[in-house]
Amino acid sequence: MSPPALYAVIPAAGIGRRMGSELPKQYLRAAGEPLLAHSLRALLKCAAIRRVVVALHPQDQWADGLTELADPRVMRVDGGAERVDSVMAGLDSLQKIAYEDDWVLVHDAARPCLLAKDLQALIDRVSAGAGGGGILAQPVVDTLKRSADGRRVQATVDRQHYWRAQTPQMFRLGELRAALAAALAAGVAVTDEASAMEWAGHPVQLVEGSAANLKVTVPADLALAEWYLQATRT
């Protein structure tokens, strides 16, 4: 029996309100190229990934300018109003060509600095595990404060048990799709794929990633992402 295949989904239908730009943030440039181009290329460099599904806004005006989207391993689908809707659209398209127990990596379009060694570590750890999927993450190193009103410190939180979730997040196709669908039907807030899997009772492994694998969310993140991209080219 052949081992499970590996696929990937990039939800890229958002408009990035927090960036304060008319251009969707996945098309903002860092180191001379759109963030989506960097994120997609990081996955395409992994020969083990059979297909990468990119979920785009139905009225996307910028995608045709990305040469990476012309790669024969890339499939385009229409995304939805929320990130989880775009992920579901990607998973639905994969169901037509993949098996339920195949693996799927979900990666953020605006996380352009994914290192090949981190991606491979996640794939190796999850593939070799006894069950469940896993995510790239980083242990929290800052002192954490809790506040009830956003103005005053209520308490200092013990950071030793906290991790910052990253992507890719890697799960079985069938299990992930079922968990996301059930969470949405129950009105559960789905902030990432792992949150739905946790809610559904599936184990989720933590695989330590790099600080370079940041998500561009606010304008200051763009300069830091550019620094990391330039540093890894030298």
Evaluate the radius of gyration.
18 Å
Return the CATH class.
Answer: Alpha Beta
Question: How much strand?
Answer: 15-25%
Helical fraction equals 25-40%
Can you count the helices? 6
Number of domains: 1
Report the major sheet: 7 strands, mixed
CATH superfamily: Spore Coat Polysaccharide Biosynthesis Protein SpsA, Chain A
Structural class assignment: alpha/beta
Average pLDDT value? Answer: 93
CATH topology-level fold name: Spore Coat Polysaccharide Biosynthesis Protein SpsA, Chain A
CATH architecture: Alpha-Beta Complex
Query: What oligomeric state do these chains adopt?
Result: single chain
Placed side by side, the strands forming the largest sheet appear as 5-4-1-6-10-7-11
Count of DSSP strands = 11
Order of helices and strands: EEEHEEHEHEEEEHHEH
Per the principal axes of the C-alpha atoms, what is the gross shape? globular
- Give the CA-CA distance, first to last residue: 42 Å
Low-confidence parts, pLDDT < 50 over ≥5 residues?
Answer: none
Q: Nutshell version of this structure?
A:
The protein is an alpha/beta fold and 234 residues long. Helix content is 30%, strand content 24%.
Q: What labels describe this entry?
A:
about 230 residues, alpha/beta, Spore Coat Polysaccharide Biosynthesis Protein SpsA, Chain A, seven-stranded mixed beta sheet, two-stranded antiparallel sheet, 6 helices, 11 strands, about 30% helix, about 25% strand, globular
